Amino acid sequence: MLRARSAGVGTTWIVAIGLLVTVLLVVLVLLADPTDLTPLIVGPGLFLLSVPLLRSEAARSGDSKLYGILLLALAVKLAGALLRHFVGYTVYLGQNDATGYFNYGVSLGEQFRDGNFATGLPSLTGTDFLRFFSGLVYTFLPASRIAGFLVFAWLGFWGQVFFYRAYRIAVPEGRSRAYGYWVLFLPSLVYWPSSIGKEAWMMLALGLAALGAAHVLAGRTGKGLLVAGLGMWFAALVRPPMAGIVALALASAVVLRPPNPAHRQFAPIAKAVSLVAVSVLVVLFIGRAQEFLNAESLTSSAGISQELTELSERADKGGSEFTPAIVRSPLDLPLAGLTVLFRPLVTEAHNAQALAAATESTVLLLLAVYRLPWIVAAIRSGRRQPYVVFALVYVALFVVAFSAFPNFGLLARQRVQVLPLLLVLLTVPPQRRREPVGGATLSGAR
């Protein structure tokens, strides 16, 4: 009876949200380009392809409501891709990175279909990798820009799902439902990683890396390192410094991870093996990041400061400039953290687009201030939940790495790479004491 009822509810969700996706796609696609009907096939196709995968994810979690939430999140994500396309080509008239990737992708796709695999690209990293990957996408898709946006948004969506699964695995004291709402529906995470470009790919890569880290820190070292390594490799293909940050954060969490009580006698050996394996990843991806940045040394404060200053000068353009708070010492971290994680504020917005970003960042800042006891509680739980250490170190390193960005528009886009792990620190409630008959105990608020 219960199984039949669950199946009926699942069917209802599929039908309702499937209709929502179809109606949204028809309306928005026709408004964007009435001559391009490819998205009306690609969008519903991606949705239907995801249905069994999301059902499996919901069953794995044991949360009866999660299935509908995930389906709704996917519908919102696909709508976000259409919104991103509208803004990029109606408001900004196509002056964006997606146009270049689309043009390269269509050209390379035609070559690949003809059996010509000479890309003409000098490398397969960074921007060149995205051009190559766009070519792979358009090997199978017609030359539809909107369809490409939908495909990349779909990839970014799975990165968000992986972040959510990692949280459920590795943060048992956290509010997993609340975290799920934030990471799946936060406007920045819906909007920015939803176009042909690096943000969607990086969301997928970092989500995979976080999921692997969660497995490692939960004691499933072999599986975790495989998944984390794959995620870091994906990240290194586009932004090697981010892979280095993930590797350092994971190494820090492994060092502080307590031994498994059931295998205490083997704990030193297990930790040594984990540290060696993670250290290999650190050396590999830090070296890759150093080569990418062309910095003197990632362990040299002078090298870091010089590189960040040069990065600031390169990014100082676009109409949303401000004076950055570059981190050159620990004393610079508070101001840099405020800037990187929460600016622009509503008082700094100068147009409608900036106001949308500023509203979200201001809300997040107010939430962080209000939940300061939660942040403290999360940090204190680091020994019990080493994934929190992973998130904390990642956020701190991200602040250092991006403190040189002097442009609010660039920051708003790049910030999506840190928001899922920043939200970890905002969703672990303080433990509250209760006095049952027979003695005092601690119970975590859920």
Shape verdict: globular
Count of alpha and pi helical runs: 19
Spatial arrangement of strands, main beta sheet: 1-2
Uncertain residue ranges: 1-9, 295-312, 434-446
Q: What is this structure's SSE topology?
A:
Blueprint: H1 2-32, H2 39-61, H3 66-91, H4 97-113, H5 127-140, H6 145-170, H7 176-185, H8 187-191, H9 198-217, H10 221-238, H11 240-256, H12 267-293, H13 301-315, H14 333-342, H15 352-370, H16 372-380, H17 386-402, H18 408-414, H19 419-425, E1 431-434, E2 441-444
Helix pairs in contact: 1-2, 1-3, 2-3, 2-6, 3-6, 4-5, 6-7, 6-9, 9-10, 9-11, 10-11, 10-12, 11-12, 11-17, 14-17, 17-19
Describe the structure.
This protein has helices at about 1-30, 40-60, 65-90, 95-115, 125-140, 145-170, 175-185, 185-190, 200-215, 220-240, 240-255, 265-295, 300-315, 335-340, 350-370, 370-380, 385-400, 410-415, 420-425; strands at about 430-435, 440-445. The protein has about 450 residues and is mostly helical. A two-stranded antiparallel sheet has the order 1-2. Helix 11 packs antiparallel against helix 12 and helix 17 packs across helix 19 (about 420-425).
